[in-house]
Amino acid sequence: MVDNNSTDNSREIAKNFVANHPFHARYLFADQQGPSYARNYGAEVAHGKILAFIDSDCIADSRLHEDLAGAFGESKIGAVAGRITGFRKESLWDKFHFMFTLKSLPEEQTFSKFTLIRGGFPAANLAVRKDLFERIGGFNESLKIYSEDYDLCARIYEAGFSIKYVTNAIVYHKHRNNLKETWKQSFGFGKGHAILLKKHVDHMIIINLPKYQCICQKWPLRLWLDLSGADKKLLGLIFLSFAWSPFTALIPVYFGFLFNYMGNRLRQNHLNADFWEKWHLIFMLLLKSSAITCGRLSGSLRNRVLCF
Q1: Based on the structure, what is the number of domains in the chain?
Q2: CA-CA distances (angstroms) from residue 34 to 2, 19, 145, 300?
Q3: pLDDT in tens, 30-65
Q4: Other residues' Cβ atoms within 10 Å of the Cβ of residue 157
Q5: Sign (positive/negative) of CA torsion 135, 6, 125, 267?
Q6: Residue 120 and residue 116: Cα distance in Å, rounded?
Q7: Residue 202 has pLDDT above 90, yes or no
Q8: Which of 68, 193, 245, 298 sits in a 20 to 30 Å window from 76, CA-based?
Q9: pTM for this one?
Q10: What is the DSSP code (8-state) at residue 245?
């Protein structure tokens, strides 16, 4: 357990646990802020052949390590990513993040290439061969937070290894439970997209449309245009309304579509929400997608790419 310069009572909790379980846990203190630095420090001290990472806002399933380790069958499997699901489904924020944040894949797959929209996995549930981890330099400590785990995945592929995703290795994630933290996290995700576009793509154009995706590598451009987000659809209708007023009628139609869409997502995830709660969930969806867009624009300006 790496204490990354915490300011609450985490240190006392960790030390008490280690005192009672000296053969199962070890407490480390890392004064330099940043998950990359903290994880690298823990990995350096660890003696196992496989490094399994988890975050402080996650709870591991009782069979997590066995299920992760059991997936390293082939020698070219450099890492194994497990499933992440919401820990609680009680408050509206819990339900929203359960449906829309860190959604896992439905079936087992093996990946051999990083394409920004596929092949990257969160370090909240990721296991890596230690010799490979050391060979590629671990997590990039210049990336303070967000994108450092996807960057590691990209470098695993570049080293000639694959990443296997499994559904039976489960981590339960305690998601953000307020507007401020949700905006901050989503903004960070968006900013990280621009960083990854700059670091791991020489020339690629990605265009995401509702139910359609185009990837082109013919031109020497770094461009990721995602028009499938709820915020961009609404913004597009607003612009069309300024151009020709009858398009204004489409705005309430779109909100009706979102209301029906939210109801379907709730049913698919076996969740319940009343009439007004569904409208609150729609607001959360627009907030999250807007924060990601703002983060992408901020990251684009800093990294000289176009990610929107």
Answers
A1: 2
A2: 11, 26, 6, 22
A3: 988 899 999 999 999 999 999 999 999 999 999 999
A4: 20
A5: negative
A6: 7
A7: no
A8: 193
A9: 0.93
A10: G
Structure tokens at 113: 């290439």
Same domain? 118 vs 222 = no
138 and 36, same domain (yes or no): yes
- What's the CA angle centered on 290, arms 142 and 305, to 5 degrees? 45
Q: Where are the alpha helices (DSSP H) in the chain?
A: 10-20, 35-45, 64-69, 92-100, 130-135, 148-158, 179-200, 230-243, 250-268, 275-303
In a domain, 286, yes or no: yes
User: Is residue 165 domain-shared with residue 209, that is, in the same domain?
Assistant: no
Dist. CA 290–CA 49, nearest whole Å? 42
Do 142 and 53 lie in one domain? The reply is yes
Name residue, tokens 């890596």. 128
Query: Over the chain, what is the mean pLDDT?
Result: 94
Which range marks the domain in which residue 43 is found?
Answer: 32-173
Please write the tens of the pLDDT for every residue from 61-105: 999 999 999 999 899 999 999 999 999 899 999 999 999 999 889
